């Protein structure tokens, strides 16, 4: 019993000593304990690192996407203008031909014979004209001395006029004979790629309204792309510039074929003269160089139509844009490095960026990624990103 009492007294004295020591320490070293109880008193909160881009106006061309079909600049159906047997075919199916190359030969012998007869008729008519001139000159001298009657004189004048008319008629017949002979040699009216022959050697063909189709030629140096532009785009980007002569040729157009990454650059060739009230569109036609003949009429094409001029626009990366129900917003960083919620109105999309119609000003610092971790009034540590790095980030996303 005595031992237990001594042990209790010992423990009590020990506890008193510890408590007195702790109180003394707080009295003589208050700063250390204050720092321990409030560790954030001297430590600043850590700022969230963010990438920002300084908004600048930049020259921008607005592009619109459309679908279209390719058509030939020149398309010609070759039909015979002479009647006869086809004696030669001077091209291979699908061959490129130049203008005035002979494609077919229709038996030229009847036309050559007609030409020779026309030449002979012309010679005879000229001889009669010479004789009529001589007779007229004689009577003109004789009438002065009253050796012939006026009736004879009038007859000589008439014979001369008829002879001159006969010469002109013979010359016209000769020209027609030469034309008919030229029709026997069917030539290419334009340069381009010829189709297959529809009628072969040895067949009889006839000229006229029911003349058969021999083949077709499409020009391949240039090609058209036909598509329809909506009325809004036409009014916003074209109308003011089309008032100037030939300004349509300054409107750029890009063409891509289906499942093809190769881009063909061209220009607007023409717009139609009316808006289709049913569809609200206007027909447009662009022209492209086609030196290798890779673009063929009838192909489906994806068309990008650019605005006539470049205008200064504010662009922002699509990764910097957030959605709040039906509203679009971005976060900007102010001079105190705090985030601010900013609602924006957006326009067209251009290569991973959106045109800002309202809500941002030149010089604003917009957070371009990591929006899920951003809240208004956050302290952040901004790192300014160049335009090139921002574009690279959009490409990788």
| Strand order, sheet with most strands | 2-17-21-20-19-18
What structural category arises from helix and sheet content? alpha+beta
Q: pLDDT below 50 for ≥5 consecutive residues: which ranges?
A: 27-36, 390-397
Number of domains as seen in the coordinates = 3
Largest sheet: 6 strands, antiparallel
The average pLDDT value, as a whole number, equals 83
Count of helical regions: 6
Q: Give the SSE order as H and E letters.
A: HHEEEEEEEHHEEEEEHEEEEEEEEEEEH
Name of the CATH superfamily of the largest domain: RNA polymerase II/Efflux pump adaptor protein, barrel-sandwich hybrid domain
Distance between the termini: 81 Å
Percent of residues in beta strands? 25-35%
Reading off the top of the CATH hierarchy, the class of the largest domain is best stated as: Mainly Beta
* Anisotropy-based shape: elongated
CATH architecture type of the largest domain:
Beta Barrel
Tell how many strands the DSSP assignment holds: 23
Report the helical percentage.
Answer: 25-40%
CATH topology descriptor of the largest domain: OB fold (Dihydrolipoamide Acetyltransferase, E2P)
What is the C-alpha radius of gyration, as a whole number of Å? Answer: 47 Å
């Amino acid at each position: 019993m005595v031992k237990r009492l001594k042990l209790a007294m010992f423990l009590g004295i020990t506890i008193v000593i510890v408590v007195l020591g702790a109180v003394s320490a707080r009295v003589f070293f208050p700063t250390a304990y204050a720092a321990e109880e409030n560790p954030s008193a001297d430590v600043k909160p850590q700022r969230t690192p963010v990438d920002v881009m300084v908004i600048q106006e930049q020259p921008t061309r607005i592009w619109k996407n459309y679908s279209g079909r390719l058509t030939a600049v020149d398309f010609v159906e070759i039909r015979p203008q002479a009647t006869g047997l086809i004696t030669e075919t001077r091209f291979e199916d699908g061959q490129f031909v130049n203008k005035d190359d002979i494609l077919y030969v229709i038996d030229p012998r009847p036309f050559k014979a007609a030409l020779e007869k026309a030449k002979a008729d012309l010679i005879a008519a000229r001889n009669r004209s010479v004789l009529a001139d001589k007779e007229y000159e004689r009577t003109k001298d004789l009438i002065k001395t009253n050796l012939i009657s006026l009736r004879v004189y009038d007859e000589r004048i008439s014979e001369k006029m008829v002879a001159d008319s006969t010469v002109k008629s013979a010359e016209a017949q000769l020209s027609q004979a030469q034309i008919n002979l030229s029709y026997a040699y069917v030539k290419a009216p334009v340069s381009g790629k010829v189709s297959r022959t529809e009628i072969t050697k040895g067949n009889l063909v006839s000229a006229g309204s029911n003349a058969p189709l021999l083949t077709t030629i499409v020009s391949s140096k240039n090609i058209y792309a036909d598509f329809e532009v909506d009325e809004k785009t036409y009014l916003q980007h074209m109308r003011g510039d089309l008032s100037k002569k030939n300004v349509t040729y300054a409107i750029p157009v890009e063409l891509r074929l289906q499942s093809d990454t190769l881009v063909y650059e061209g220009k607007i060739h023409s717009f139609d003269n009316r808006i289709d009230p049913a569809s609200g569109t206007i027909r447009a036609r662009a022209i492209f160089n086609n030196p290798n003949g890779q673009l063929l009429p009838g192909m489906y094409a994806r068309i990008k139509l650019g605005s006539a001029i470049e205008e200064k626009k504010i662009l922002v990366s699509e990764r910097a844009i957030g959605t709040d129900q039906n509203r679009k917003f971005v976060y900007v960083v102010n001079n105190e490095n705090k985030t601010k919620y900013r609602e924006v109105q957006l326009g067209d999309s251009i290569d991973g960026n959106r045109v800002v119609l309202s809500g941002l000003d030149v010089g604003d610092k917009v957070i371009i990624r990591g929006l899920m971790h951003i809240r208004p009034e956050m302290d952040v540590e901004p790192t300014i990103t160049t335009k090139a790095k921002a574009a690279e980030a959009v490409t990788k996303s």
